[in-house]
Amino acid sequence: MSIIANKKAFHDYFIEEQFEAGIVLAGWEVKAIRAGRANIKESYVVIRDGEMFIFGMHITPLLAASTHVSPDPTRTRKLLLHAKEISKLIGKVERAGYTLLPIDLHYTRGRIKAAIGLAKGKKMHDKRDAEKERDWEREKQRLIRVKV
Question: How many domains does the chain have?
Fold first, then answer.
């Protein structure tokens, strides 16, 4: 069940592979995400020293957050993957044109997980082609509905 999706990632990039990663979160962050107060549109994933981190993920704290905690909405959060998966991603990201993006946040057995996509950037003409294809599919469905 998806909590937040990054639709912009599919518009701007070709997603070649997807991985599921756990996220190290504080208690107030879990509550805020469950309330739907997270944003991953401008976020990206970086690999440093064999560990993965998500930058730019914004989680707006709830008003009822604890008084002894000073929430930082855009702090860097660690992602949890197996070492074999991280080493595989390091090899692919070091090649030209590849990047790692969060695609969505979802629940898996009650835990909040992030779907991470190995992506290659789209050129402007690729975006236009995708838009034309999407418009044509929509028009095809309208024509089929009208005839039936």
Answer: 1
| Residue 132 belongs to a domain | no
Q: What is the 3-state secondary structure (H, E, C) of 1-38?
A: CEEEECHHHHHHEEEEEEEEEEECCCHHHHHHHHCCCE
Residue 70 lies in a domain: yes
Sign of the Cα torsion 94, 99, 104, 105 reads positive
Closest CA to 116 of 85, 138, 145: 85
Q: Is 103 helix (H, G, I), strand (E, B) or coil?
A: strand
User: 50-98 pLDDT, tens per residue?
Assistant: 899 999 899 888 887 666 777 778 888 999 999 998 888 888 888 777 8
Q: Does the model's pTM come out above 0.70?
A: yes
